[in-house]
């Protein structure tokens, strides 16, 4: 994360680290004046909380003041809130898939874990939240945390990342723009607009930096092609389809996802179909910390080099393989890091003039 191409996200994480201690509570400035905790939004001169509202996945959320007991139902939402310096506003987190990055560890340690995996309705209610945040709609089901309607009836507003609400987004909006809208909306709700604006500006710069590759890559049919191998389950590959974030990453860096024609995020395909599409290079999502069979980058490499057909592909034979953290291939505050790795990797593999 210290590579020059990734200075944008490194700066963002440094800002988050610097803000963690300040977000923990009020104090005083150099002149001895009282300061409010991060996330406090007050009306100038009155001390009264400022009423705010945003729309999330088709629902309007209104608050008379910043939420105080937020529960994040997944790691994506947890890390976004921590990046915004809002750990003091969190009453719980759940569904940790991989190790929390070192930059978030201290802040994460202050937040109760209500469930190590997917939270149930009982576990969520026990945390007495006044706001619930999730990266995907499938966490709001009756057999999980409860439906959004059910929680709304309990006077608990719910937020879903715009990335997982395609029916409510303007046509053509990119996944990164949707992530930036999440930062803006959460910043507004918590009175952390400045932090959200800094994060958005930094990540926009990182996306633009990765996109500079595209101008140096031959256009049209000559664009380098790529397969994103996310998982191998029961011997079968799961790859990035046309609706996934990696397809947008490919466009940004001037490559083409060979499974763009599959209207799914992570479809199961056959190794023979991967071979037929013969990608110029392969991106492996390393999910070692998740710990399931076939999750690690080493296992995926071994599967490909041991396969009678895939092992003969030039991309495998010539080791034109890039490794990135698997969790970063799903939309999150960390995705610009994977984008930077892919942009740099294309240069290293000779796909950029």
UniProtKB/TrEMBL annotation:
Keyword ATP-binding assigned: no
Ranges where the Fe/B12 periplasmic-binding domain occurs: 69-353
Pfam families: Peripla_BP_2
InterPro entries xref list: ABC_Transporter_SBP, ABC_transptr_periplasmic_BD
Domain of life: Bacteria
Region (Disordered): 26-47
Signal peptide: 1-22
Keywords noted in UniProt: Signal
PANTHER family: IRON(III) DICITRATE-BINDING PROTEIN, VITAMIN B12-BINDING PROTEIN
Family of this protein: Belongs to the bacterial solute-binding protein 8 family.
Name of the featured protein: ABC transporter substrate-binding protein
UniProt organism field: Streptomyces zaomyceticus
């Amino acid at each position: 994360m210290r590579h020059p191409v990734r200075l944008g996200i490194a700066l963002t994480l440094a800002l988050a680290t610097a803000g963690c201690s300040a977000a923990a509570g009020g104090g005083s400035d150099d002149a001895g004046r009282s300061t409010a905790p991060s996330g406090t939004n007050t009306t100038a001169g009155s001390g009264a909380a400022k009423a705010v509202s945003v729309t999330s996945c088709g629902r309007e959320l209104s608050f008379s003041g910043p939420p105080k007991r937020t529960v994040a139902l997944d790691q994506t939402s947890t890390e976004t809130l921590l990046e915004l310096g809002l750990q003091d506003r969190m009453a719980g987190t759940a569904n940790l898939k991989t190790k929390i990055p070192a930059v978030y560890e201290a802040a994460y340690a202050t937040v109760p874990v209500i469930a190590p995996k997917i939270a149930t309705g009982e576990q969520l209610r026990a945390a007495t939240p006044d706001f619930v945040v999730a990266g995907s709609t499938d966490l709001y089901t009756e057999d999980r945390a409860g439906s959004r309607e059910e929680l709304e009836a309990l006077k608990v507003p719910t937020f879903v990342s715009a990335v997982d609400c395609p029916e409510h987004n303007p046509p053509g909006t990119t996944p990164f723009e949707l992530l930036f809208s999440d930062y803006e909306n959460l910043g507004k709700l918590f009175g952390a607009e400045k932090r959200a604006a800094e994060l958005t500006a930094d990540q926009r710069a990182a996306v633009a930096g990765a996109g500079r590759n595209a101008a140096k890559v031959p256009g049209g049919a000559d664009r380098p092609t790529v397969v994103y191998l996310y998982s191998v389950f029961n011997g079968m590959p799961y790859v990035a389809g046309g609706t996934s974030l990696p397809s947008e990453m490919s466009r940004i860096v001037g490559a083409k996802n060979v499974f763009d024609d599959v209207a799914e995020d992570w479809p199961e395909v056959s190794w023979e179909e991967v071979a037929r599409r013969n990608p110029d290079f392969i991106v492996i999502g390393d999910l070692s910390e998740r710990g399931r069979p076939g999750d690690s980058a080493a296992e995926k490499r071994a599967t490909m080099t041991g396969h009678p057909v895939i092992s003969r592909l030039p991309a495998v034979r010539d080791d034109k393989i890039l490794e990135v953290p698997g969790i970063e291939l799903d939309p999150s505050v960390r995705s610009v890091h994977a984008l930077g790795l892919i942009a740099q990797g294309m240069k290293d593999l000779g796909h950029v003039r």
